[in-house]
Prior knowledge:
By secondary structure, the protein is mostly beta strands. Helix content is 5%, strand content 57%.
Amino acid sequence: MKHATIYGLLLSSALTASGLASQSVSAQEAQASAPGQGEATGPVAPGQAAQTSSQAATEPPAAMPAETVIVSGIRRSLESARNAKRNASQIVDSIVADDIGKLPDRNVAESLSRVSGVQVDRGIAEGTSVSIRGLRQNVTLFNGREIFDSTGRGGIGLDQNGTSTYGVMALVPSDLIARLDVTKLAGAEQVSGGLGGIIDIRTRMPLDGPESQVAVRAAATYDQLPGKTGSELFGMWSGKFANNTLGFLLSVSADTRKLAQEGLDTFSGYRAYNQTVGGATVARFGNQDVRAQDIAEKREKRGLSAAVQWRPSNRLEISADTFMSKLESDRDRYWLSFNPTDGLSNARYSSNNILLSGRATTAVLSNTEFAAVDSDVKSSAVRARFAVTDSLRANVEASYGTSKASFHQLYFRLQPLAGIQPVVDFDLSKGRFGEYAIGGIDFANPATLRHTILFDNLYRAETDTKALRADFTHSTGWDVVDSIEFGARYNVIDSLQNPLRADIRPSGGIPASQMSAFLGQYASSGAIAGLPANYTVAAKGAFGSCADFASIPAIARDPQCIDPASTVNSRAGTFDIREKFTDAYAKLNYDTDVGGVNVSGNAGVRFVQRKLESTGNIMNASGASTPTTFLRDDTEALPSAVARVDLGDGNLVRLGAARVAAFPNTADLNNGVTLSNNAVFVNGVQTGVGSGSGGSPNLDPFKANQVDVSFEKYFGKQALASLGLFNKNISSFIVQQQSAESYNGVNYFINRKVNGQGAKVKGAELLVQLPFYFAPEVLRDFGVMATYSYIDSSTPIRDAEKRVLPFPGLSKNNVNLVLYYESGPLSIRTAYNWRDEYLVSLSAANTGIYSGSFTDVGATVRYDINKSVSLNLEANNLLNSRQRTYDGAVEALRTNAQYGRIFKASVSLKF
């Protein structure tokens, strides 16, 4: 079925999904054609590709094109995007909201999954971060300026659950978005650092659209797995004054959701061990950490966008806008865990020597985690566009942004009393999650348990960015080169992490019978067969920190509880990274005829200088720390060129080449080490090595040469077919390396990034947009949009078996298919998204962790009662798909989680 779907779409590519129109649009052309944008005309400012009307210069308002009104309905949206693609030079894909507040996905990541070549990672029931053409080293912009996660460039938030649910992609509500632009081949004027591409999140500006407008949307949501309802609210007001030269806009959004996830999880994953079989030694591979886990979370998100725009003449425009979003989460995790390789008997293995079933005589652990998360992002900018002379135009901008996050983790472990030895019969090959039978202990009876570990960890991160830029365009009046662009940018990024961590392990444990005030019973979801229906856990609300255990001095008087800032983990994880970027560029724009064929495009070069200061605590084996600052300077020259060849009769060819560079993720540049609290001790003796991650501030940047070619055919009414080919030759690549290190008498395997050999990524992106204009009358209201991307890679990443691994996050095959019906007030869309398996990361054992293929099916029904009122019904994850990961071989199951179907009903008002 998978291959049939792929082969059936070898000539297709989608431009949109539920409620979207997705098209390749140029940096210069996208704004004038995108529905709902209402852009002013005039030349696009240098360095401000695909900007909103806040950057639009300076032609008289009367010259506005007819497409600058707000457009309802997918057909007008697709037509505008199709026309923009046809006239474009840069290689840029866009997603455009049908109308105000009508981008139906929950966040930016989910919306971007509709673009060919973009693949989305998922956290708990929500899209999180993305790869562009198989690469995660991308730039994220908001109205043209760079924004960051709280953990800096390449960050995915502070989530300790191994997901990226709280990163910047999940923070931006889709209601605030008018358009998303994905640049796959950047020009010299654009912000550098996108090894895969550049994502620009566009909002509306007050001089867009009609003279005065109010839009309101209210929705009720239902998450099937927890059986809980939620709500969404969105409101926008915009108005024009002073003869339409002054405009104000304010939009707000609020989203409250209760969600759940249940299934199999792990932290330590699989380990290799030897077994004697018939006198011979056989290498085996077994899961050493099986977790039957339930998650319940309440998530609240608030967003605000405000803007003011003043255009007193066709030679001057001054504007300012600000954006802020705040996410608060209260998450509870409960799980029973055990080590199947401990005291193993009756073992059964696969042909790959993967442990499938057996009996483990081992400790079974009851685990509770309460996590309180606050994450927010703010970004503001002031800009001026003006005509210096009749032939020279300028744009200057000052921007400031800050992102902050805190993750307060309370983890509480119970395990059997000494002398009580549970036995677990397990079969990981049965059912969705395996089958289990636990004997020798009653987990509902606290008298059989003791408390052994308490974490009271407060993870904190903040990233601030300040930028100044000036861009100029000189109209030459020459025959071939019609304009010259040049400019400069100065940017400072400061990223700080300073956790407070307490890892308290009372000697010998504390009998649970002495902790009744802090204990409760948890009723298991029943998703995993054979587990206890109820088991003893930490009671919700019984404590908020280790200091609340005043009646238990072994916890409250522990030195780590009294002074968490001085612990090894706190000092090792504290660092400050400051980067200063100074950029300058020059670019020529040309338009000419060669042998009767029109050829247009641009060529330029961007120079980038970076100065790095990385300050962290260098730890020695005894746990003592020395604050140390590392300094480094880098300079890169990044040429680029693109050509658009119009062959006539709707046939276009685009050619492009560029050198790109992306500096390492901020957290990888820290001058210290972060240690995980997972070392195993038995009677004071370390039996399991801990894990951690260390920084490498002297890393070289990623560098790549890329080539793009695109063949496009425009035909019929709104119809389009295209084939894009690309190749990236990455000369400098960063890989992960593991080393044995010791801190404060505890042994760890520490993962650090190092520069490895080169890598390559290549692929094809196919696209079809086909309204059924040619069909019989009964079918003419239908249409189809589809994308298929094939991406392949070779990297220097090797696992423990020396196998070559692909880029993390890269699926070779990705399919989007949308069937829509639109007639009068009724529109119906069904969207199908499938992505192939992909590498998640390397495990602590240096093996490849893979995420299995994932299918998402959603549907949207919209009915416009009149021009002002519309009703919407939406359904997501209709197949109740599960997220499955495995270690090396498909039968080496690590995780298998489900979060259920999601439904939403909404009413929209516009007047």
